[in-house]
Design brief:
The chain is built from four helices and eleven strands. A six-stranded antiparallel sheet has the order 1-2-6-5-4-3, covered by helices on one side. Strands 7-11-10-9-8 form a five-stranded antiparallel sheet. The radius of gyration is 16 Å and the shape is globular. It is 21% helix and 41% strand.
């Protein structure tokens, strides 16, 4: 268990987003351990933290008077936690050899940007959209085909959707880590909720 990745979104003042992960069974104890790892990496004191959920169900952590977005994902014995000290984070992990059925791809492809999405591997597209929706706090309650994704650079993507009348945008990074596809969505702004 350790920090497996840190990502600095574009912009000179953007702080790192940290991901910690490991190959252990998902449990509250292990989630807490990984959360402590990302808090420590971000220079935050993990003692006296309060983990809470927003009305949407999205997890957050409060330390002193500040709250921070974090996201949890697990797949087949791998658990990961991402922490954003600024803005919002969403995380999705999948086993890299998972086959996404063509019928599912048809349901998640957006009609507006399908020419871009056709160039993205099906599993990567799934994780991009799921990480984005976890970042918003909506999860799969918002249709994946309403999320538009475009590649911007190798391993980097842009996504957007209109949710509750507000256009939400995010930067995403997607990569392989020990036979798992890991995708992180990040937005500089708080999304659809008050703290």
């Amino acid at each position: 268990m350790a920090i497996i990745f840190s990502y600095r979104p574009e912009g000179e003042n953007n702080p790192l987003v940290y991901i910690a992960g490991g190959f252990e069974t998902d449990s509250d104890h292990y989630r807490q351990t990984l959360l402590s790892e990302v808090l420590k990496a971000a220079g935050l004191d993990s003692s006296g933290i309060e983990v809470f959920r927003l009305e949407s169900g999205k997890p957050c952590v409060r330390s002193a008077d500040e709250s921070y977005s974090f996201s949890v994902s697990h797949s087949k014995g791998f658990l990961a936690v991402a922490l954003a000290v600024k803005g919002e984070a969403g995380l999705d992990t999948e086993v890299a050899d998972r086959v996404v059925q063509p019928s599912l791809i048809k349901r998640i492809m957006s009609t507006d940007e399908s020419e871009f999405e056709n160039s993205i591997a099906p599993l990567t597209l799934w994780t991009l959209k799921e990480a984005f929706l976890k970042m918003t706090g909506k999860g799969l309650r918002h249709a994946m085909n309403k999320v538009n994704v475009k590649p911007s650079q190798p391993h980097l993507y842009k996504a957007e959707s209109v949710i509750e009348g507000k256009r939400i945008k995010a930067d995403l990074v997607s990569f392989l880590y020990r036979k798992h596809r890991i995708t992180l969505a990040w937005s500089a702004e708080r999304i659809l909720h008050a703290e």
